[in-house]
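URGENT: need a sanity check before tomorrow's submission.

F., can you look over the Histone H3-like centromeric protein CNA1 record below? I want to be sure the sequence and structure line up before it goes out.
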Amino acid sequence: MARKAYQPKRRSNSNQNQQRSDSLKKNKQDNLRSKSAGNQQGNEKNKKDIQDQRNKASTKKKRESSGEKYESARDKVIRRFRPGDNALKQLRQYNQTPSLLIRKLPFQRLIREISTRMTEEDSLRWTSFALVLLQTVVEDYMVSFFEDANACALHAKRVTLMSKDLALAARIRGQKNVTGIFIPTKK
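C-alpha cells as predicted:
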C-alpha cells in the first residue's frame, strides 16, 4: 500500500476571518491592559525621578558647603567676564613673565635691515647675546612709552589710545620725530 502525503485540513474563509477578528480583539485588550499598567509604572517612575532630583540638589548643596569638586561638567557654572577683564588678566600675566614679548627671529631681521640701511657695509655681524640684550632694552622702552601714552589718554578722559597721545608722551619726554617712522638711509 502506498503512503499518501500528509495534507492538513483546509479551513474555510469564514472560519479564518473569525479567528483574525478574535486575535485583533485580544491584541486590543492586551494593549489597553499594558497601557493602564504602564501609567501606574510611569507614575512610579515620575515619583522616582522627582526624588532623584531632590537628592541631587541636596548632595550638590552638601558638596558646595564642604568645598568638594563638581560632579560633572554640567554642574560647573559658566563664568562670563566683563568687557576688559580678560585684557587686564593678560596684562598681569605678561607682567609676571620674564620672557620676551616680541618673537626673536622677526626682531633680528628688523635689526639687520635697519643696520644695513644705516651703514655703508652690506652686513654687520651681530652676536646672539647682543640681539637679545637689544630686544630687552627695546621692549622695556616700548612698555614705558606706552604707559606714558596711556596716562595721557586717561588724562583726556579717554580709554582709547590715539596717535596724539603717543606724540604728547614723546614731546614730554623730549623726543623729536615721533609723528612718523624715522629710519635714516645710506649717505
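My own read: The two ends are 132 Å apart (CA to CA). The domain at 85-173 is CATH 1.10.20.10 (Histone, subunit A). If you see anything odd, call me.
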